[in-house]
Amino acid sequence: MTASPRPEEPLTIAVAGGTGVVGSHVVAALEADGHRPVILARSTGVDLTTGAGLDAALDGVDAIVDTANVTTLSAATSVRYFEAATANLLAAAERAGVGHVVVMSIVGIDRMPHDYLAGKLAQERAVERSSVPWTIQRATQFHEFAAQLFERAKVGPLHLAPRGLSQPVAAREVGAHVARLAAGPPRGRVADLAGPREERLDEMVKAYARRTGHRGWIPSVNLPGAQLKAMRAGLGLPGPGATLGTQTFAEWLDELD
């Protein structure tokens, strides 16, 4: 994935969730390519769940990138959030005459529509029904997923390393790729986006822990739940023809402070 030339006519591109893990990289990539990003977040006066501030924020916007997220393991909560936020965003986009919406999604959600992923699948279906021209980009877990598992998978003070398979990708590379999609024409569902090599989740968690100074025992475990069972079966891995990034998980670890 190489850098884009600077455009002759810069676009105004709104980024929902533009302060998040991947959204911040989308904003940086848009600026580097000469476009004008508009961040849609509560910190900028926009609430996707109610629609507050959307109409004003989308005035004059050419395209939208949706990287907004909700922190939950509940399927009901996830579906409720993404159905409301996506409906509000698409309705406002239609009113503003936005010509292209790019939605960040997750590889394999149709094979494992459980827990948080149920909401992402509901989001995709809402976008596909929309009258606003769209592109859906599914990506595998980011390298940062190991840090999230390290913090969340715990029994008391004991950290756990959930077993599973992933092909993690650099959030920075995803951001640059999605920024280029947003500056181009709508393409529907595009090829999966993944990292350069398959990894074991438990080994990723342990490597992250060592890199950040943790010296305690971290057992590898099969955690309960349909989503993690599906990931152990490899259902979150990219399909044939996926677009591959270049940064490995080990190289990402080397960049940590």
CATH superfamily: NAD(P)-binding Rossmann-like Domain
Level-1 CATH class name: Alpha Beta
- What sequence of helices (H) and strands (E) makes up the elements? EHEHEHEHEHEEEEHEEEHEHEH
CATH-derived architecture? 3-Layer(aba) Sandwich
Strand fraction equals 15-25%
Percent of residues in helices comes to: 25-40%
Q: Taking Cα atoms only, what radius of gyration do you get, to the nearest Å?
A: 18 Å
How many discrete domains?
A: 1
- Helix and strand content put the structural class at alpha/beta
State the shape: globular
CATH-defined fold name: Rossmann fold
The main pleated sheet reads as: 6 strands, parallel
Overall mean pLDDT = 95
Commentary on this structure:
The chain is an alpha/beta fold and 257 residues long. The protein has helices at residues 23-32, 54-57, 75-96, 116-129, 145-152, 171-182, 201-211, 226-232, 249-254, and strands spanning 12-16, 36-40, 63-66, 101-106, 134-139, 154-155, 158-159, 161-162, 165-166, 188-189, 193-194, 199-200, 220-221, 243-244. The strands form five sheets. Strands 2-1-3-4-5-10 form a six-stranded parallel sheet, with helices on both faces. Strands 6-7 form a two-stranded antiparallel ribbon. Strands 8-13 form a two-stranded parallel sheet. Strand 4 (101-106), helix 4 and strand 5 form a beta-alpha-beta unit. It is globular and about 55 Å long. Mean pLDDT is 95; it is low at 2-7.
